[in-house]
């Protein structure tokens, strides 16, 4: 069989992939664009990540999506990166270029693309909840798109000072600072009018974090929550009750998958079809 007769293939690599709509959405993307490509999903723990990346590279996969818990670990094990992946030191997507897989980070830009459909980012005072998951990529993207200031609520209590120092060094003309935060109290400054929750903490924390933020939510704000779930998250429910514009996680995931498919195939699928697929999978 000639190499040209083999089906093109892509995959998802992650931990706890059960219940994730990505596979269903990518299959829909290929169908909508008329591409005879195949998509696979692999459950891979941190200890086997290097083997998995080597395997998909050797087997000729054209593209890979990585779930958030493996994105920063993957950066060290991919030989070539885009400029934005080098900036965040994280890889959410692999694409084949010149017979090798190149790492890119679509996580932050997918959040931004959904926000700017409602309101411009330039001049806004932003806050992100944590730097794990999509958090760091979202922080970089917000500042690159002109946010006047950035507050970081470090709910994970991880050692994130190195990432914060890099943000400050990259954007020395912008205010970048941490704010006091835990599950009961988040000291959100009154000027903040853009809030992004892009981390991957345990879902049990969603409700208390939403309650801690509720007094600070207003109708002049836009609030994005990258958590993929059926319906609105507790944070977005609270924000919508107060008249804020909200951006749910399935919209962000649809944007990221559409961009990944474009990078893999050269054809961008319609996001509406991907949203329909996500809602069908999640039973919305």
From TrEMBL:
What is this protein identified as? Shikimate dehydrogenase
Q: Which UniProt keywords apply?
A: Oxidoreductase
**Listed InterPro entries:** Aminoacid_DH-like_N_sf, NAD(P)-bd_dom_sf, Shikimate_DH_fam
Gene3D superfamilies from the UniProt entry:
Leucine Dehydrogenase, chain A, domain 1 (3.40.50.10860), NAD(P)-binding Rossmann-like Domain (3.40.50.720)
Listed SUPFAM superfamilies: Aminoacid dehydrogenase-like, N-terminal domain, NAD(P)-binding Rossmann-fold domains
Q: Which residues cross the membrane?
A: none
Q: What's its top-level EC category?
A: oxidoreductase
The Enzyme Commission number assigned here is: 1.1.1.25
Q: Which gene encodes it?
A: aroE_3
């Amino acid at each position: 069989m000639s190499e040209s007769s083999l089906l093109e293939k892509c995959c998802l690599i992650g931990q706890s992939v059960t219940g994730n709509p990505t596979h269903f959405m990518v299959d829909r993307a290929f169908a909508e664009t008329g591409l005879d490509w195949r998509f696979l999903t692999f459950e891979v723990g941190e200890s086997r990540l290097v083997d998995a990346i080597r395997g998909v590279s050797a087997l000729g996969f054209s593209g890979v999506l990585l779930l958030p818990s493996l994105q920063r670990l993957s950066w060290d094990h991919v030989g070539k990166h885009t400029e934005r992946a080098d900036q965040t030191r994280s890889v959410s997507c692999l694409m084949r270029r010149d017979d090798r897989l190149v790492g890119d980070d679509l996580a932050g830009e997918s959040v931004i693309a959904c926000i700017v459909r409602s309101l411009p980012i330039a001049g806004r005072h932003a806050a992100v909840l944590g730097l794990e998951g999509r958090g760091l990529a979202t922080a970089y993207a917000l500042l690159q798109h002109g946010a006047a200031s950035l507050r970081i609520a470090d709910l994970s209590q991880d050692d994130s000072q190195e990432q914060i120092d890099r943000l400050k060094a990259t954007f020395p003309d912008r205010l970048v600072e941490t704010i006091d935060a835990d599950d009961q109290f988040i000291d959100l400054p009154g000027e903040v009018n853009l809030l992004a929750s892009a981390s991957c903490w345990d879902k049990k924390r969603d409700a208390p974090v939403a309650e801690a933020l509720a007094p600070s939510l207003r109708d002049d704000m836009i609030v994005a929550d990258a958590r993929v779930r059926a319906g609105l998250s507790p944070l977005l429910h609270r924000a919508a009750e107060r008249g804020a514009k909200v951006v749910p996680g399935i919209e962000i995931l649809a944007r990221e998958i559409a961009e990944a498919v474009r990078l893999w195939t050269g054809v961008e699928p319609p996001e509406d079809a991907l949203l329909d697929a996500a809602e069908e999978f999640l039973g919305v």
